[in-house]
TrEMBL record, chain A:
Bilayer topology annotation: Multi-pass membrane protein
PROSITE patterns, alphabetized: COX3
Listed GO biological process terms: aerobic electron transport chain
GO cellular component: plasma membrane
Broad class of where this protein is predominantly found: membrane
Protein name as annotated: Cytochrome (Ubi)quinol oxidase subunit III
Species in which this protein is naturally found: Alkalicoccus saliphilus
Cited CDD domains: Ubiquinol_oxidase_III (cd02863)
SUPFAM superfamilies listed in its UniProt record: Cytochrome c oxidase subunit III-like
Automatic annotation (TrEMBL), chain B:
Keywords from the named record: Cell membrane, Copper, Electron transport, Heme, Iron, Membrane, Metal-binding, Respiratory chain, Translocase, Transmembrane, Transmembrane helix, Transport
Pfam families for the chain: COX1
Localisation per UniProt entry: Cell membrane
Main localization, broad class: membrane
InterPro entries tied to this protein: Cyt_c_oxase-like_su1_dom, Cyt_c_oxase-like_su1_sf, Cyt_C_Oxase_1, Cyt_c_Oxase_su1_BS, Cyt_c_oxidase_su1_bac
Molecular-function GO term, any one: heme binding
Catalytically driven reaction(s): 4 Fe(II)-[cytochrome c] + O2 + 8 H(+)(in) = 4 Fe(III)-[cytochrome c] + 2 H2O + 4 H(+)(out)
Family membership noted in the UniProt record: Belongs to the heme-copper respiratory oxidase family.
Record's protein name: Cytochrome c oxidase subunit 1
Residue ranges crossing the lipid bilayer per the database entry: 27-47, 67-92, 104-125, 152-178, 190-217, 237-261, 273-294, 306-331, 343-365, 377-403, 415-440, 460-482, 544-565
Length: 205, 611
């Protein structure tokens, strides 16, 4: 039965894709990420169109500090790595270890989110209100949408971790953890683009 | 774990509100779509009355702007797409031999988001006027429009659009993962194929609309500066975002119709579809090119001759795969034993009507000439020729074709043919003259015209045609009501070729007692010709696993709608209430594992008449 814990000796090779429901979720989530890609591409396009429209307000070179953004990048990249370890442990059947690594992802994600909020507060104090210029609006919308995705991802993973803290790995919850990790990788990749297009291009270009 | 007897205790209303059965969802999409089709049709009538004579005072200019905006928006998002979704939902799982869709819960959520989005959009009429910036909502017209009309437009489409995106993902996964044994991709019926490509287009096009609408919302409600030129904003960005969505959208509206005609024409010509492979690849090429041509809506914006030339050539290239399809339909008919049923009449009338729309499409694609055509009635005539001549004729063809399977009775052919001829004549009467009105310089989206400019007669003819279409539509409604007694010969009335005709009418909850084994393209026809006329089973008779219904989709949609109203009226508390409600419903869905129930073999045998 789907809701019984898997014994290590009868564990399927890929518990997240062992059932039709699991395969559907996996494929459906990839399609969803395809749509999300267009969503972020639209925001990137808008930002690129407006990134020089400061209209007298502060611009990237006044605001951005690569050291802060570098720390954020490292936090998020590491959080993706811990989620990879979690999935490896899931496939090995080490449910406890999987949960531990996932908590690591959550903590690193929260660290990233904290720095992002701090960053926004600092920029606001330096005069970059949302309504100041087209650059400000497009910057906050692009980075803020990513931040909202991070927030949602953290809430999602915490929900799974608490809901399944005692159940052990099942064919019903393995796909859930797997899709959450997939989502987390996606927002990580989006951040890599934000780091390049927004921050590196803003300071250097 | 409950069983099916528990499910049958529910009241009929609660059953329909909580259903995750793709067939019931399809039927609800159908009536939802038909309802909004009627509203948008009435809006069109009101506009044609206003334009019947020069300088009429039937509706004011502001009302006219609202009517034209809501007519377009409603027809595209709330009528045509849901009507196609109705047939996709009902027919595609049957055509591929599946018991259900991949995500029954998400399917239901998509339906309710569409219904709530449509209601939000139309509530605007009662709260101080509808949106008035055109269905395209170009900035800065939309960002500076007074009142709350455009806010309703933005949030209504946001809610409905979220549902559309979910449904598209559901169709994609269903078609990839849920096909019966033997149903390879290249054995899928063409309607399933076009559903697949259409869903791809929705998946990659709708997020661009989401962002376009989001930016309008941020500008209007939260003081953003995206489209405020004084603060460095750029209004053309919105046009790009909108048409990156908007052009694929027109293929989203036509490809399912192509699929329907590719089912109807072979059935009534008694021939296998000519050039099946070419049809599949033409569909994919149209889908791909649909993303490459958005800027042909913006020739007059001033992108420069190079961009205009590239987009002009790319646009004309779409005529090639479309032409392939037209010739394949003609060659399917060639030498066939053609039956002129109502469904087939719509398909046959589609070919010349749509070609007319295609020809004016190529004319409009010539960017130099487009400076003359732009924003005139020539454009209006063109897109009504492709949308009515393609999509709407397709919807009506599908209605007559699949009605016996969906509702268990056949629509009257006599009334159907009256409906067909009156509608077809009305359609050409309305829109053929609009080509000339456009070439004479009559601008679109303007609520009146002056006397003595030679526009009077053709506008009058156009309005008469619109009345004829409206009258014909009433015949369809009458047909639906009076044909209920035709309950004989509903299982396979057209001597069908594809799997949906191998099921009972009305279809059992589980579609197929045993998953069918597919041995060829046109699987059912193959068994009729080479086998014993019944589908071979791919599995022994066994208990069937079914998903449980759920009320959560309505609650999630309700939460999203409350959030939308919070945004429309800038009320933070309402946004928070709606958001919290929506996310807690999603939370419940996430933590409550639902393993569905099983229908026992004994009951299946009883329903098969073997018990």
């Amino acid at each position: 039965m789907a809701n019984e814990a898997i014994q290590p000796n009868v564990l399927p090779q890929n518990p997240e894709k062992a059932t039709l429901e699991g395969r559907n979720k996996y494929l459906g989530f990839w399609f969803f990420l395809g749509g999300e890609t267009v969503l972020f591409a639209s925001l990137f396009g808008t930002y690129l169109g407006l990134r020089n429209s400061y209209d007298g307000g502060p611009g990237p070179q006044d605001l951005f500090h690569l050291d802060l953004v570098f720390i954020m990048t490292m936090l998020l990249l590491t959080s993706s790595l811990t989620s990879v370890f979690a999935v490896i442990n899931m496939k090995k059947g080490n449910f406890k270890k999987m949960l531990t690594w996932m908590w690591g992802t959550v903590i690193l994600g929260l660290g990233f989110l904290g720095f992002e909020i701090y960053e926004f507060v600092v920029y606001y104090d330096q005069g970059l209100g949302y309504t100041v210029s087209a650059f400000a609006s497009s910057f906050y919308t692009l980075v803020g949408t990513h931040g909202a995705h991070v927030t949602f991802g953290i809430a999602w993973i915490i929900t799974l971790l608490i809901r399944y803290r005692k159940t052990g790995l099942t064919l019903a919850n393995a796909p859930k953890f797997n899709t959450a990790v997939l989502y987390w990788h996606f927002i990580d990749v989006v951040w890599v683009f934000i780091f390049t297009v927004v921050y590196l291009l803003g300071v250097g270009g | 774990m409950s069983n099916s007897t528990a499910a049958s205790k529910k009241s009929v209303l609660y059953d329909w509100l909580t259903t995750v059965d793709h067939k019931k969802i399809g039927i609800m999409y159908f009536f939802g779509g038909l309802f909004f089709f009627t509203i948008a049709g009435i809006e069109a009538m009101l506009m044609r009355i206003q334009l019947m004579f020069p300088e009429m005072g039937f509706v004011g200019e502001q009302t006219f702007n609202e009517l034209l905006t809501m007519h377009g928006t409603t027809m595209l998002f709330l009528a045509a797409m849901p009507l196609f979704f109705a047939f996709m939902n009902f027919v595609v799982p049957l055509q591929i031999g599946a018991r259900d869709v991949a995500f029954p819960f998400i399917n239901s959520l998509g339906l309710w988001l569409f219904i709530f989005g449509g209601i939000i959009l139309n509530i605007s009429w009662m709260t101080g006027g509808g949106p008035d910036a055109g269905w395209t909502a170009y900035t800065p017209l939309s960002t500076t429009s007074g009142g709350h009309g455009v806010d309703y437009y933005v949030m209504g489409l946001q809610v409905a659009g979220a549902g559309t995106l979910m449904s598209a993902i559901n169709f994609l996964v269903t078609i990839v993962n849920m096909r019966a044994p033997g149903m390879s991709m290249m054995r899928m019926p063409l309607f399933t194929w076009t559903t697949f490509v259409t869903s791809m287009l929705i998946l990659f096009a709708f997020p661009a609309l989401t962002i376009g609408l989001l930016l309008i919302m941020l500008d209007r409600i939260f003081g953003g500066a995206f489209f405020d030129v004084a603060l460095g904003g750029n209004v053309v960005i919105y046009q790009h975002l909108f048409w990156i969505f908007g052009h694929p959208e027109v293929y989203i509206l036509i490809l399912p119709a192509f699929g329907i005609f590719s089912e109807v024409i072979p059935t009534f010509a008694k021939k296998r579809l000519f050039g099946y492979t070419a049809m599949v690849f033409a569909t994919m090429i149209i889908g791909f090119l649909g993303f490459m041509v958005w800027a042909h809506h913006m020739f007059t914006v001033g992108m420069g001759p190079v961009a205009n030339a590239i987009f002009a050539v790319a646009t004309m290239a779409i005529a090639v795969p479309t032409g392939i399809k037209i010739f394949n339909w003609l060659l399917t008919l060639w030498g066939g034993r053609i039956k002129f049923t109502t469904a087939n009449l719509f398909a046959l009338a589609f070919i010349p009507s749509f070609v007319l729309g295609g020809v004016t499409g190529v004319q409009l694609a010539m960017s130099a000439a487009d400076y003359q055509f732009h924003d005139t009635y020539f454009v209006v005539a063109h897109f009504h020729y492709v949308i009515i001549g393609g999509s709407v004729l397709g919807i009506f063809s599908a209605t007559f074709y699949w009605w016996p399977k969906m509702f268990g009775y056949r629509l009257s052919e006599t009334l159907g043919k009256w409906f067909f001829w009156l509608f077809l004549i009305g359609f050409h009467l309305t829109f053929f003259v609009q080509h000339f009105l456009g070439l004479m310089g009559m601008p679109r989206r303007v609520g009146s015209y002056l006397d003595g400019q030679g526009l009077n007669e053709m506008n009058f003819i156009s309005s008469m045609g619109a009345f004829l279409m409206g009258f014909a539509f009433i015949l369809l409604v009458i047909n639906v009501l009076v044909s209920r007694k035709n309950t004989d010969n509903v299982q396979d009335p057209w001597d069908g070729r594809t799997l949906e005709w191998a099921t009972t009418s009305p279809v059992q909850e589980y579609n197929f007692a045993q998953t069918p084994l597919v041995r060829d393209l046109d699987a059912f026809w193959y068994e009729k010709m080479e086998g014993d006329g019944r589908m071979k089973a791919a599995e022994p008779l066994d208990d069937i696993h079914m998903p449980n219904g759920s009320i959560l989709p309505i609650f999630i949609s309700l939460g999203f709608s409350i959030l939308a109203f919070g945004v429309i009226y800038s009320q933070w508390w309402l946004m928070i209430v709606g958001g919290v409600f929506m996310f807690s419903m999603m939370f419940i869905r996430s933590i409550k594992e639902d393993h569905g129930y099983h229908i026992p073999v004994s009951e299946i045998k009883k329903e098969k008449g073997e018990g």
